[in-house]
Amino acid sequence: MILQTHIAESRDEVAFATSLFPERKDLLDIYDHYGLVKRRTMLGHCVWFSDSEFARAHERDASIAHCPTSNLFLGSGLFRLRVAKDEKRPIHVGLGTDIGAGTIFSLLRRSTTPTRSRR
Predict the structure, then answer these.
(1) What pTM was estimated for this model as a whole?
(2) Buried residues in 76-88 as b, exposed as e (16+ CB within 10 A)
């Protein structure tokens, strides 16, 4: 199974989810406990991952979708790319977009104004 989910996108999300599972070490541990962190897992955002969550993502060979336009639009924080790509335990990181929390689908366009197609 391929799994794609949003995780650790805001501090409130992390605090709420971990309050529901106080026996788990951190947010990623909740997902991992239920067998959801594997090679075919794509974790969206991960802005508020701890160092141990980055290490676990590496151990499980999960990937991260970094969504800079939505994270900056929401003001949720900046993804720690250097930590994710630590040469001692690198994680596969790709770029993603999240129109639910941003203004555009394209990561290549700087403008947030829709353009008309030219014929």
Answers:
(1) 0.83
(2) beebbeebbeeee
119 residues of the chain, pLDDT tens digit each? 899 999 999 999 999 999 999 999 999 999 999 999 999 999 999 999 999 999 999 999 999 999 887 888 788 889 999 999 999 999 999 988 776 666 666 666 654 544 444 44
Is residue 96 a contact partner of residue 44, using CB atoms and an 8 Å limit? yes
In a 3-state reduction of DSSP, which class is residue 109? Answer: coil
CA distances from 9 to 12, 17, 93, 100, 108 (A): 9, 12, 15, 13, 22
